[in-house]
Amino acid sequence: MMKQLLSHQHKDIRKESLWLLSNIAAGTRIQISCVIHQAGLITAVVDALNNDQSEVVRKEATWVIANICINGTTEHIESLVEAGAIEALCGILGSADAQIIA
Prior knowledge:
Strand content: under 5%
Radius of gyration: 12 Å
Number of strands: 0
Shape: globular
Helix content: over 70%
């Protein structure tokens, strides 16, 4: 269900769904594992970061990845790398929103 919300036509739905995931990713390693191991979810987060037209959506996707990096295990971070998160993060470095890259 969450994966479908990340591709919803309304940007507010996508933004709030990513906000929810970023809060889960700020939790315990068990909670982060649930996010990582949900089929296609990390790929959808990286896709939102790479391709969403809304800067607020991309900002929330950045928080999901950042929180996993801060609170997760090496295995969690390896999953992000395999999903293309590093390239996606590099792609936002030119963002006009300083909060995304700060």
